Amino acid sequence: MTLMTKPGVEPLRIEPEAVEEAAKLLYIRACKVLPDDIKEGFARLDGAETDATAKTILATMIENIGVAERMDNLLCQDTGIPIFNVLIGRNVQVDGWALKEAIARGTARATREHPLRSSVVHPITRKNEHTSCGERVPVINIDFTDAERELRLEMIPKGSGSENGSFLQMLVPADGVAAVKRFVVDRVIQAGGKVCPPTIVGVGIGGTSDLCMHLAKVAATRPLGTRCADAEGAKLEAELTEAVNSLGIGPQGLGGDSTAFAVHVETAATHITMNPVAVNIQCHSARRASATFTPDGIRIGF
């Protein structure tokens, strides 16, 4: 697959071997090193927390992060469902099938060679192949950007504690934004401490049922400090963040002000007779890692 090749411009060629190695390293890195924005989020919550028990729990979480990184150990024993987001820019040449196979090989190598706990099983037999791979797993999402000669590979290990905090409702359009707010707040109350708060609450609004659920996960795994590109969505983020943190659920569900780092919203156009709303929650160990392929080499980051 060659995308938007300009005359006289040498396309960026993505080699499967490089993708495989990157996928392996990103899985391990994501499980061991927490992104800076999440660490800053912890510091912000800790500074604002008024409940003594909640402050103790936050301090324990912060110390756990430090110990894991100092000892080159895992942030959480749950290595999750491996999710890879692939963003392909202009003038990029890549074999799509080879890319998919390379990501799976890298995932299996990370699991076996590190080793990582394989959390992936067959949905009916529950058989574990001990590769963190299976039918349609790793989950691979592909999108396109206007970045010149660049491919970005993002790895997100989505643990089951947070992934079990997933909800979808087809709301009545006439009920308006009040119904959206009520649904989100009710689902956060329902999840309580089971999703290992403080969390990032991802909200998808619009699209179809499947797109809406995907948007909620995109929102839940966005870096802290980013805002919804849609002005109404950004406004709703601020209102919902305040509402969620007034619930008193607190860290690990034991009370306090720090229920969520933030509520993130992503939107899509939808049909005139429906209004899908989805919630996907990311736990306090909001792990991710990325590799950006350019003509100058591969940059590793978050």
UniProtKB/TrEMBL annotation:
<comment type="similarity">
    <text>Belongs to the class-I fumarase family.</text>
</comment>
<feature type="domain" description="Fe-S hydro-lyase tartrate dehydratase alpha-type catalytic">
    <location>
        <begin position="21"/>
        <end position="291"/>
    </location>
</feature>
<dbReference type="InterPro" id="IPR051208">
    <property type="entry name" value="Class-I_Fumarase/Tartrate_DH"/>
</dbReference>
<dbReference type="GO" id="GO:0051539">
    <property type="term" value="F:4 iron, 4 sulfur cluster binding"/>
</dbReference>
<dbReference type="GO" id="GO:0004333">
    <property type="term" value="F:fumarate hydratase activity"/>
</dbReference>
<dbReference type="Pfam" id="PF05681">
    <property type="entry name" value="Fumerase"/>
</dbReference>
<keyword id="KW-0411">Iron-sulfur</keyword>
<dbReference type="GO" id="GO:0046872">
    <property type="term" value="F:metal ion binding"/>
</dbReference>
<keyword id="KW-0479">Metal-binding</keyword>
<keyword id="KW-0456">Lyase</keyword>
<dbReference type="GO" id="GO:0008730">
    <property type="term" value="F:L(+)-tartrate dehydratase activity"/>
</dbReference>
<keyword id="KW-0408">Iron</keyword>
<dbReference type="InterPro" id="IPR004646">
    <property type="entry name" value="Fe-S_hydro-lyase_TtdA-typ_cat"/>
</dbReference>
<keyword id="KW-0004">4Fe-4S</keyword>
<protein>
    <submittedName>
        <fullName>Fumarate hydratase subunit alpha/L(+)-tartrate dehydratase alpha subunit</fullName>
        <ecNumber>4.2.1.2</ecNumber>
        <ecNumber>4.2.1.32</ecNumber>
    </submittedName>
</protein>
